[in-house]
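REVIEWER CHECKLIST
Item 1: Sequence provided? yes
Item 2: Single chain? yes
Item 3: Sequence as submitted:
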Amino acid sequence: MMPNPTQSSDPKQRTALVTGGAGFIGSHLVDALVESGFAVRVVDNFATGRRENLNPAAELVEADIRVGNSLPACFAGVDCIFHLAALPRVPLSIEKPVETHLTNVLGTLNVLVSARQVGVRRVVYASSSSVYGEQQGLALREEMTPNPLSPYALQKLVGEEYSRLFHRLFGLETVVLRYFNVFGPGMSAGGPYATLVSAFLLARSEGRPLPIYGDGEQTRDFTSVRDVVSATMLAMDCKVADGRPINVGAGRAISVNRIAALIGGPIARFEPRPGEPRHTLADTSAAAQLLGWRPRVSVEQAIAELLQSQGR
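Item 4: Structure as written out by the authors:
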């Protein structure tokens, strides 16, 4: 039997659940929740997460969000679910659209269905800035019409729509956060889940040129995982929970070439990859208004910390 704690404003008496809590962003969120005094439960199947990321103070339930009937027991007694489990990255979704769909769409639907079934108060859904695709002008605002350019972007958009529908149809509190390019300690260093910053750091540590796809003048809104976690925790109790999307980004566009220069070392150029927008930049005014959140960590500071942690 899962514990069924009383839901209250006291964090010590509330249980927060993080799907994908052994992953990069999820494990940072779990650490912050534990530090704030919440009882924390992690649901993960370790498809992308790592056991060494797990906070020992969190309860682990090994389960797969693609298997819907396994989730109600996992969610019993939970006040808020942070749904971060996903198969991320655009290239992987282009290579394996069915596999990524099952996790990113069916898995999200299963989470929402089970959350409603057992009476979870709120679901915070981690979406992606990739839903914007190419837009006319920057910064990217939540009211812009989505223009997904890849299966991953479309899958995240479908998850957003399900989150809105579950609020409208069933009254489930849902908050949708559109994460921009998140980076920080614990990123996947290689393989299909590697981020740009982690790929650069790995190449540098191995004495290889930093791989740049295209001319490197494409820009991204690189956002520290510390800032992302602080915004995500605020979404647990913000007043507006009707499924509307909220950007979580640094509000600053930086070129890939600039990131390479900050990390240092020779570069190697490759053909551009499909499915990626040319530029991203978050308008964060909604996050300031609805969450009371502003980014605090600069790209330069965060990369300097990563290099220092590698002894560079």
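Item 5: Key structural point noted by reviewer: DSSP finds ten helices and 13 strands in the chain.
Item 6: Recommendation: ____
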